[in-house]
Amino acid sequence: MLKLKILIIFFIVILISLIFSNIFPVSPWAKIYGNISGQESYPHRNFNFHHTLLPDSLVSLTSGFAVIIDKKAQKLYVYGTRNGQFRKVFETRCSTGKNQGDKLTSGDARTPEGIFFPTRKFTDDELTPIYGTLAFTLDYPNYLDKRTGKNGHNIWIHGTDKTLKSFQSNGCIVLDNSDILRLSEFIYLNKTPVIIVDSIQWVPLDSSLSLKSEIEGAMKKWENNVLAGSENAEDYIYIIHSAGEKVSRRQFLKQMRQIQTLARHFALEPKDVSILKQNDHAVVLFDQIISVENNIFQGVYMKLFLEKRDKQWLAMKDSNQAAPVILAGSRRCDGLPEGENIPVTQTTGTSRSDQTEPLTPIASVSPVHTEISKYERDIRINTTPDEKAISSLISRWARSWESDDMPAYQDCYAEDFRSRNMDLKSWIRYKKGLYERYRSIQVVVWNVDIKIYAEQGRATARFTQRYTAPGMNETGTKELRLIKIGNAWKISRERMVD
Fold first, then answer.
1. What is the pLDDT of residue 48?
2. Where in the numbering of this chain does the L,D-TPase catalytic domain appear (predicted)?
3. CA-to-CA distance for 49 and 41, rounded, in angstroms?
4. CB-CB contact of 106 with 170 (8 Å)
5. pLDDT of 456 higher than 70
6. With contact defined as beta carbons under 8 Å apart, do 394 and 463 qualify?
């Protein structure tokens, strides 16, 4: 009798187990964390409940990947797409600036917030051990940062040979060495967006559809204005990446209008469109065909900037505010304490990684030809021929100095030039020696103030200058005294005011 009771209880337990296994095929906690059979498995996935949610910065991504950094959570995520759906493909911990908030100025030990793009890649043999095995420079400060008065040295994403701790950097994003090597698989220079936010706002996957439609509408209005030959079409803020020779704004606008005669024969609308946003600003990435010859397409890769005003998305226009002019890539990391040597051990040539990037869109991504940040934007808004001529002279002077074009550099000066007890010949010899010593020099110029004394044929130009060379980073006010010789302005004196 006892055996029979035990047997009946055993069968009742099995029956109850079967009933509950059909009602709850997996643990309720497993459902919350997404550990359901059949879901994709990604490395470092600790918060799988976000599998059904998406960072609100990701509006559309048709190819490639996007990196999202959550400063409060000290997390880095990488998203891609599969069959038109967003997928998180990588997640890891990171360390950002030791001070909270958005970066405003150099030395504030904060990590900037915004949409950035990696511009250079440095490998183990180019870095000191403190920066780990790999590093990427970001394009901070970008145009929007400069427009709002933010500054600072280049911000990097890099590894570390030290134990990773939260909020330990001076502004850079720091990863374990193994994680930055993994991250590098998802990064394509000048194309992969890196979105840095204070805290990610997670939204349902389908919530971006209406926003995508709004931004695509704003992009279409921009395109229509360009094709219609609108007189202010040059004022829109966009960056053109071209393969080979630089494509200027004017050339781009002209080619866009000319190619419309072929619209009946070819699909010429923007392709491979991706949309990223942060707060009231957005960046649209796309490929654009600009010419067709013998059925061969020539295209450019573009970034269009938009902003939300009065609840409406619009393509941004130049605000006519002078922005800093960065004419060469800096190799100094804002994560370095002031006064220390730069972390890069090689200062010449292009890193091997820049020459071996795989895959290309319509046009290969070559070094960025960033029209909006070139000094010609300032030249266009000046009002008098003399101001334009002096602005052009300053631009030519800075470029020739950085590129070691000594004939062009010398041509900026008057024959009777004097500075620091040197005449022109001694000055040029001195500058040649500096270039031979450093090989990598950057000159950043902004806040240009020009005063012209027409009757005397003289002028002064004062501006803020940041001079960067290996082991050196100096910012101060420079003054150029100029004289007019014939129809050309020349530099007769040059000095640092402070």
1. 40
2. 65-197
3. 13
4. no
5. yes
6. yes
- Order the strands of the 134-138 sheet from edge to edge: 118-123, 134-138, 156-158, 173-174
Percentages helix, strand, coil for the chain, rounded to the nearest 5?
Answer: 30, 35, 35
Q: Are strands 312-315 and 296-309 parallel, antiparallel or unpaired?
A: antiparallel
Catalytic residue from among 158, 241, 333, 412: 158
User: Could you give the 3-state DSSP secondary structure of residue 19?
Assistant: helix
172 is catalytic: yes
Task: Say how far apart CA 200 and CA 73 lie, in whole Å.
Answer: 9
CA neighbor of 189 nearest in space, from 350, 334, 335: 350
412 is catalytic: no
Question: Is the Cα torsion angle 133, 332, 366, 174 positive or negative in sign?
Answer: positive
In angstroms, the CA 158 to CA 135 distance is: 4
- Which residues are CB-contacts of 180 (< 8 A; sequence separation ≥ 6)? 132, 133, 134, 135, 157, 158, 159
Specify burial of residue 154 (Cβ count, 10 A radius: 0-12, 13-18, 19+): buried
Contact 466, 326 (CB under 8 A): no
Residue 492, pLDDT > 80, answer yes
* Catalytic hit among 172, 241, 333, 412: 172
Does residue 86 contact residue 79 with C-beta atoms inside 8 Å? yes
Distance CA 426, CA 407 (A): 14
